[in-house]
Amino acid sequence: MDFNVTLFVQYLIIGIASGGLIALIALGYTLVYGIVELINFAHGEVFMMGAFLAVTLVAATGVTDASPWTAIVAAALLGFVGATLFGAVLNWGVDRVAYRRLRNAPRLAPLIAAIGVSFILQGIGIYWKGSQSIAPPRLIANEYRTYNVLTEWFGLDTRIRLRPLDLAVLGLTIPLLIGLTWFVYRTRTGKAMRATAQDRDAAALMGIDINRSISIAFLLGGALAGAAGMIALYYNNSANFQMGFRYGLFAFTAAVLGGIGNLAGAVIGGLSIGIVWQLSDGFIKQYVSGWGAQWTPSMIFGVLVIVMIFKPSGLLGEHSVDKV
Amino acid sequence: MALRPRARGRATGQDDEGGMTRRQAGRLLLIVAAVAVYPVIDARFGFGFIGDLLGIFVFVILAMGLNIVVGYAGLLDLGYAAFFAIGAYTIGLLTSPFSVFVQKDYVPEWLQHFWPAMAVSWAVAALFGVLLGAPTLRLRGDYLAIVTLGFGEIVPNFFINADGITEGTKGLNLIAKPPTIPLPWGEDLTFGGADQRNWYWLMLVVGLFTLFLIRRLHGSRLGRSWQAIREDEIAAASMGINLVRTKLWAFGLGASFSGFAGSIYSAAFQYVHPDQFKFSVSITVLAMVILGGLGNIYGVIVGAVLIGGFDRILTKELTGPVQWIGRQIGSPWLSEHSVADDTFVVFGAALVLTMLLRPGGLIPNARRRAEMKPEDDDIRVAEDQTLFDVRRDGEPALGEQA
Predict the structure, then answer these.
(1) Which of B76, B343, B345 is the closest to A108 by Cβ?
(2) Please, are residues A263 and A180 in contact by the beta-carbon 8 Å criterion?
(3) What is the separation, in whole angstroms, between the first and last Cα of chain B?
(4) If you measure CA to CA, which chain B residue comes closest to A299?
(5) Does A196 touch chain B (CB under 8 A)?
(6) Cα angle B216, B148, B237; round to 5
(7) Is B189 in a helix, a strand, or coil?
């Protein structure tokens, strides 16, 4: 089959949109890792819980795509803000209950606890919404799911489809990323966080409340994950208790690829992983025959393994050496 | 850098280091005898747990194998199910009539039988353990965990997608069974679908053999090297231990027991399917090792029996009573609740609570316990650095006074 440019660009765009989502989750990994050097395995599950809460909240309003647009916007906003706050509080609570007491334990102890928390949250997900995928209440009329922005708005004669949803994902993701960067690099609290990440003891000696800095990292990471949960819910039009595992690992890979602990790296890593994901799911598939078609996990984890082995500091990470 | 602390805990009688006292040997013998007699009791009272116990035996073998990697050598492996899958698929591809290799006559006739194929599965899993372990040797604790997790996801994904070889999601069945063993008193020991009791005894023998091997390994020069690198890589290396070789042995031998378990599992249940080797299996086995007691083989067996017992037996047996209670108290949620839905919460809680309350596990290894719960902060800092830390140039460690 010939190389299909239209299709390639199409999946590139979808890849960038889902990459933005992954970047949001990856930022949570990177923030937490940067400050406490813990791979917060439960982070993906916080994202999943955010999506579940958004379903609950939006359904509780009773708004549908037939409601007036103000009601629709209000319901969506409620879901978004609710999921964000919930993610923040949940992530902070997990830290308080499970990780804080292990702060001084060997590094594998909080990692194992994090795996445990991830399992517990998946179990709670099953209690909450069952083990089947659920669809969110429909807020946008069905026609908008196939609506082509480029043709309808710009009058371009192209088969590259850009849906309002793709635009919305980017429109929500980019401000969140900018806001976070501003917070970490421009505010006093952000400065305290960076100091804590650099040297916890020295920061404490300078009068920085270490536990507060760490809690804020968990709060921020959780908020981004919760927001991403709401976005993913409507982007995929479904949610299930395992979505956190898949997205979480992809996002972790993105964080590692970009250089864990580095905010810009997480975004670049997220976009790259999103593109690899969508090209593998949609585009490369067209050219592979005779074999199964779900190679995406292998591709992404292949990237993870290769980065870990050959350049553990990632694309933008600082140079690190083995201690002698 | 602070001086390396010595683990203060003295090896207790429960520890699997060194030999056994006569009393311990007697106790072990008693337990083994009770387990060996159980099928008779089961048949007499019609409990029907034998099939579930087969699954638990496999879990015990898996947990003992993972204990080599995580407990003895201190390398956190989150993709252990990959080797289980490799073992299961090796015997499947060698002996199932649906395997491409068998159909194309690539497999010699003598290999298409249970025992030789099981030996090959053992070796192939060990080989993959070394192959997948080799690139990770330079990584520190948590990165190593993630890379093994990556491999653990890639391997089943390969088996699903390589459907030209593995039949993909259809799976493989009709895997070779052990040949019938004629007994001296004229009966035959057969391994058909209905003869689960014989499988039970076979697995008991295999499990005891594994236990014996791993106990011997633990006390051997290699076993002591594993503990040395777990406690302090640098000190171990400067005492002349070859880190690369020692770690590769841990990966290889740990994986080999998983392959072993995989081949028996697939032969006993006559089915191999990629879904049997998901991430949750790796975590279930890890939960057994952690709950039971990292590095203590008897603790690990107890952990495997507890977690495996919940997974295989309690999820089924408890559902009825729980739903009955739900109906009595008029709770619609509880009266339709399936205990199988609780596995995630139970296994997760096992991991978290063990880490928070009893980091050494239910039956801790004395040396390991001293490591997981340092007596004071200096020891903790030293442990952290030497075990897992890699830092940027010239930057002081967390907790270290610059």
Answers:
(1) B76
(2) yes
(3) 11
(4) B154
(5) no
(6) 55
(7) strand
Of B146, B286, B373, the CB nearest to A304: B146
Question: Domain map of chain B by residue range?
Answer: 22-388
Question: Given the DSSP bridges, would you call strands B181-182 and B188-189 parallel, antiparallel or unpaired?
Answer: antiparallel
Q: Among 1.10.3470, 1.10.10, 1.10.443, 3.30.2450, name the CATH number for the domain at A5-134+170-310.
A: 1.10.3470
Q: State the Cα–Cα distance between residues A31 and A91, nearest whole angstrom.
A: 12
Cross-strand pairs, B173: B271
To the question of pTM greater than 0.95 for the whole model, the response is: no
Instruction: Please give the distance of CA A315 from its chain centroid, rounded to a whole number.
Output: 19
Per CATH, the architecture of B22-388 is what?
Orthogonal Bundle (1.10)
Q: What angle do CA A268, B141, B159 make, to 5 degrees?
A: 70
Q: For residue B185, give the DSSP letter.
A: T
Tokens matching residue B297: 């083989």
Please check whether residue A132 touches B, CB under 8 A.
no
Separation in Å, CA of A145 to nearest CA in chain B: 30
pLDDT tens per residue across span B116-165:
888 999 999 999 999 888 888 877 777 888 888 888 889 988 888 877 77
What is the maximum span of chain B, computed from C-alpha positions, in angstroms? 77
CA A73, A76, A79, A80 dihedral sign is negative
Contacts 24+ apart (CB under 8 A), A63-72: A63/A137, A63/A139, A64/A137, A64/A138, A64/A139, A65/A138, A65/A139, A65/A140, A65/A141, A65/A142, A72/A139, A72/A140
Break chain A into its structural domains and give their ranges: 5-134+170-310
State the nearest Cα–Cα gap between B42 and chain A, in angstroms: 33
How is A37-102 classified by DSSP, letter by letter?
A: ----TTHHHHHHHHHHHHHHHHHHHT--TTS-HHHHHHHHHHHHHHHHHHHHHHHHHHIIIIIGGG
Instruction: Work out the widest C-alpha separation in chain A, in whole angstroms.
Output: 66
User: Are the beta carbons of A119 and B154 separated by less than 8 Å?
Assistant: no
For the CA atoms of chain A, what is the radius of gyration? 20
Q: On the CB side of A164, how many CA atoms lie within 13 Å of its CA?
A: 12
State how far residue B375 is from chain A, nearest Cα, in angstroms: 11
Q: Report B:147-176 residues touching A (Cβ under 8 A).
A: 147, 149-151, 153-154, 157-158, 160-164, 168
Query: How far is A171 from A161, CA to CA, in rounded Å?
Result: 17
Q: Yes or no: say if B91 and B263 are a contact pair by the CB < 8 Å rule.
A: yes
Contacts with A295 from chain B: Cβ below 8 Å: 157, 161
Q: Tokens 């393994």 belong to which residue?
A: A305
> Consecutive 10-residue runs of chain A (324 residues): their mean pLDDT?
76 88 91 87 94 93 83 90 95 93 84 92 91 84 68 71 80 86 90 88 90 92 94 89 89 89 87 89 70 77 85 70 38
Exposure string (b/e) for B26-56, b if CB count within 10 Å is 16 or more?
A: eeeeeeeeebeebbeebeeeeeebbebbbbb
**Calpha distance B234→B232 (Å, rounded):** 6
- Range with the poorest average pLDDT among A14-28, B77-91, B163-177, B238-252: B163-177
Q: Whose CA is closest to B277, among B139, B115, B92?
A: B92
Angle subtended by helix axes B114-133 and B81-95, to nearest 10 = 140
ipTM of the complex: 0.87
